[in-house]
Design goal:
Blueprint lengths: L2 E5 L4 H12 L3 E6 L10 E5 L2 H9 L4 E4 L11 H15 L2 E5 L21 H20 L6 E5 L17 E3 L15 H13 L6 E6 L1
Parallel strand pairs: 1-2, 1-4, 2-3, 4-5, 5-6, 6-8
Antiparallel strand pairs: 7-8
C-alpha cells in the first residue's frame, strides 16, 4: 500500500485518481481549495492552497499526483505552484506525476507540439500554461525528482466522461490515435493508467501519453 497525495483531488481528474487509488487499498489524501461535494470512501480530505500546505501534505508520501487546473485564481500561477509541489515531492523522496494536456503532445516524432501550432482561442491560454508546466519539469525539475508528465487523449474531460473499460494504450510524447483517427480516453481509464504508473513505474523523467 502506498500513500498517494492528490492535489486537485476534488476536480475531474483528481477525483477519478483518488477513487481508483482508494479502491486498490492505497492511503489517499486529497488536497483542494474546497470541500468535496461527494466524498469518496477511504480518502482523507485536506483543504487549503496547494503551495501553502504542500510540505506538510506531502510528508511521508510515496507518490504525488498534481492535477490542478489553470482556471479561476489558479490561472497564470500553474508553473509557480507546480514548482513548489515538485520541490516538496523531491524533498519527501516521493514520485511526482503531473497531469498535463493533449496539446503538449506531438502529432508525429520530432514534429512541433500541437501547442506550437494554431489553437482555438478558448483553449489557448490553458494549453500554453500547461505546456509551460511541462517545460518547467523538463528543464528545471530538482535533479533527485522522479517525475512523469502525463497527457490524456484529445477527447478527455467531464464533457466526455466515457465508461470504465480497464483498457488503454500508453505512448511517449507522440499522440496516440485509433484506426479511425480519433483520440479519446475516459476519466476512469485515464485514472487507471495513472495509478498503474504509481504501482508499477515505467516512465522516469519522461512524457507519457494515454489514449485508447
Amino acid at each position: 500500500m502506498a500513500r498517494i497525495v492528490v492535489f486537485g483531488g476534488t476536480g475531474y481528474t483528481g477525483s477519478n485518481v483518488s477513487r481508483e487509488a482508494a479502491v486498490r487499498g492505497h492511503e489517499v489524501v486529497s488536497v483542494s481549495r474546497s470541500q468535496p461535494t461527494d466524498r469518496i470512501d477511504g480518502v482523507t480530505y485536506e483543504v487549503g492552497a496547494a503551495d501553502e500546505i504542500a510540505s506538510n501534505a506531502v510528508a511521508g508520501a510515496d507518490a504525488v499526483v498534481a492535477a490542478l487546473s489553470p482556471r479561476g485564481d489558479m490561472a497564470g500561477r500553474l508553473v509557480e505552484v507546480y514548482s513548489v509541489l515538485a520541490q516538496a515531492a523531491a524533498d519527501a523522496g516521493a514520485r511526482y506525476l503531473q497531469v498535463g494536456g493533449f496539446s503538449s503532445l506531438r502529432p508525429a516524432p520530432d514534429a512541433p507540439r500541437f501547442v506550437e501550432g494554431e489553437l482555438a482561442e478558448q483553449y489557448r491560454a490553458e494549453a500554453l500554461e500547461g505546456e509551460a508546466s511541462r517545460v518547467m519539469l523538463a528543464e528545471r525539475a530538482p535533479e533527485n525528482l522522479d517525475w512523469v508528465f502525463i497527457s490524456p487523449a484529445g477527447s478527455y474531460g467531464s464533457w466526455a466522461a466515457g465508461e470504465r473499460t480497464g483498457t488503454y494504450r500508453v505512448g511517449d510524447d507522440v499522440a496516440l490515435f485509433d484506426q479511425d483517427g480519433g483520440s479519446s480516453i475516459s476519466g476512469a481509464d485515464f485514472a487507471i493508467a495513472i495509478v498503474d504508473e504509481v504501482d508499477s513505474p515505467e516512465h522516469h523523467r519522461a512524457h507519457m501519453g494515454v489514449a485508447y
